[in-house]
Automatic annotation (TrEMBL):
Pfam families: DEAD, Helicase_C
Domain of life: Bacteria
Domain Helicase C-terminal span(s) in chain numbering: 220-389
The protein's name in its UniProt record: DEAD/DEAH box helicase
Entry keyword annotation includes Hydrolase: yes
Record motif Q motif, residues: 1-29
Family: Belongs to the DEAD box helicase family.
Record's keyword terms, sorted: ATP-binding, Helicase, Hydrolase, Nucleotide-binding
Domain DEAD-box RNA helicase Q, first and last residues per copy: 1-29
GO molecular function, one term: helicase activity
Amino acid sequence: MPFSNLGLAEPLTRAVREAGYSAATPIQQQAIPLVLSGRDLLAAAQTGTGKTASFTLPILQRLATNPGASRNRPVRALILTPTRELAAQVAESVAKYGVHQQPRLKSDVVFGGVKINPQMLRLRSGVDILTATPGRLLDLVGQNAVKLNQVEMLVLDEADRMLDMGFIRDINKILALLPKTRQNLLFSATFSADIRRLAQTLLRNPAQVEIAAENAAADSVEQIAYAVEKPAKAGVLAHLIKSNDWRQVLVFTSTKHNANRLTEKLNAAQISAKAIHGNKSQGARTSALADFKTGDIRVLVATDVAARGIDIAKLPHVVNFELPRSSADYVHRIGRTGRAGRSGLAVSLVAADERSALRQVEKLIGNKIAFGSIAGAAPATPSETKAIRPNSAGK
């Protein structure tokens, strides 16, 4: 279905075409008309299905019917996200889709990890649409740099991740600052019991949209596992990248320390890589992501928290260097590939003590993940030769 059939104004549909999108995804087809009508919305869809445009486009249209922001004007649309990267991504979408609107709506983004004073100065001139992480937003409220008492539209994006990261207290503090009459939109990759409880307190007679089966993996993603003991994982990963000539690989690790150590090993193997995690400065995180998107580095090694907001339409390969603690995070990880109508490959390196975690993933997604053999794999050191077990599928 073309975007022009969803009730969007021509400046918005033109911006969407210029961004390279010709047809609306299922979540966009259902959510956009509901948001335009003023309904509260509870929406779930697999990651990579276009959730961001599902709320940014109708927000831009609804707010465009009123005058733009003026000096000291309070925020009219507030979008809360769990991470800096996701906040930056959403803000980019707002700017991209609103480029042809006249008059232009003013938007901004604020998050931690950077100096607060420049953000305070920018907000003084007023803003229509503000994208923020909860902690930094509360800091700015405490500094009297932003007012939230005239918010007309509220979005909780990746609400499941915000709850997982312990943001519920901050969210409740922010909700207490908002006017009671407003439109509320809750978007999530999955619907947990906690999400449904939050929806009951936040949303008023909401429409509900659920595009895919809960916790399903996208059909566009091929999934394969390799049985590899922990000491051999770095060597096997380097072999897979080199032997298959993978040029752009997003690798997930369980800890910041493991991300740093793996990055060092890949660079030592002449595979350009950078790490992105919570201990990195915002400048370093932004630089690493930019280098990855442009192909200046082949591998981006990330922890789950830092990876929220990594949106690369043509990303071909995702690797689980370690399986995540939460099976739902596996679905989110592999959803980074196989986007925008393209196929993708998700590889998991599974040690013996991770077999139970793999079974939990398989139970969640409703499918068995086949094990592959690693032909010609060379371990990182001779002592690791016995650690590679390429043909232990299903045993």
